[in-house]
Each structure stands twice: as C-alpha cells, then as structure tokens.
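Quick one, tokens below:
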C-alpha cells in the first residue's frame, strides 16, 4: 500500500519537473531554436493547431527562423499569431514564407528570461509540494482506516518528505543550469 503511495508521489513529482523542462525550452537563450514558437497556435479551418502543423518551421541559422506555410492563405494568419504571441520579434512576410530575425539578446532580455525561468521553477516547486500533500493525505487515510499504524504513518510521511526534498533539489539544479545557459554570451 505505501509503495503505491511512494510510486504515485514520484510519478507526479517527475511530471512537475518534466513540465518545467518543457516550459524552459520556450525560453530564448543565446542561440535561437524553433522551441520558442511551441506555444503559438494558429487558426486552421476553425480549429487552433500548433504552428508546426500549419507549416514547416526551421532555424536556418543562429538568429533566424523561417516558417513556410503548407498553404499560402495561412501566411497572414501565422503572421498575426506570431505578433499576438509577443516573442520579441516582428515577422517578415515575403509572400511565400515568414522569416523571424532575432537580434542578439541584450543583458536586460537575458535577465528577463532568467526571471521567467525562476517563475517556472517556482511553479514546479508548488506542484511538487501539492503532490506531497496528496501523498500525505493518502497516508493519513490509510492510518485512519487502521490499515497502517501511527508509527508507520509517521515513517511514511518522513519518506514522502525525503522524496519531496530530492525533487526540489532537482528543480533547483535544473534552474541553475538554465540560468547559466541563458546568461552565457
């Protein structure tokens, strides 16, 4: 029974870290990646689809992303979606494709990106703490139903805290690496 609680706890906490790492990919670092466009959705035949499903998205060099829509009619829709997303650049539409030219990041932009990363890490920590609470609640229910003793309950809650500490440390380490990546010129 308690092993199931521990496994639940580990899976949920790993999910929080995976989500944070996924969010980190949308942050701009020194080199431009197409991941910065991952959260942009465009209207395609009445439904909102990810940008990469409306056209080819390529990082042609360290500062340029080229978007070639599958249909020419999508050019203006994609262009509007990029402007609405406010990713720090204006799209250049040449009639057949859209190019995004990213200037070198300024010190202020790097600090803003670090601030966003810290916010994402804090959200992950909140998720981990919520998962700890859920696990502890399950343990308390087991104790209340007399399936485990009070001593087993206390030991199990201590183990859940150790698992929580491990994942909080992972979050801090991942954030530290991302900060270093962002601030490296």
């Amino acid at each position: 029974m308690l092993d199931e609680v521990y496994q639940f706890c580990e899976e949920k906490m790993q999910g929080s870290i995976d989500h944070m790492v996924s969010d980190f990919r949308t942050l701009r670092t020194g080199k431009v990646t197409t991941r910065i466009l991952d959260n942009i959705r465009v209207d395609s035949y009445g439904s909102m689809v990810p940008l990469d499903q409306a056209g080819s998205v390529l990082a042609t060099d360290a500062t340029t992303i080229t978007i070639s829509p599958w249909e020419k009619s999508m050019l203006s829709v994609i262009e509007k979606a990029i402007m609405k997303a406010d990713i720090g650049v204006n799209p250049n539409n040449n009639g057949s494709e859209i190019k995004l030219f990213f200037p070198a990041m300024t010190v202020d932009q790097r600090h803003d990106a670090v601030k966003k990363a810290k916010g994402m890490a804090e959200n992950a920590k909140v998720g981990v703490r919520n998962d700890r609470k859920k696990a502890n609640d399950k343990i308390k229910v087991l104790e209340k139903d007399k399936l485990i003793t009070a001593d087993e309950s206390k030991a199990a809650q201590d183990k859940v805290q150790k698992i929580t500490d491990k994942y909080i440390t992972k979050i801090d380490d991942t954030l530290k690496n991302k900060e270093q990546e962002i601030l490296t010129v």
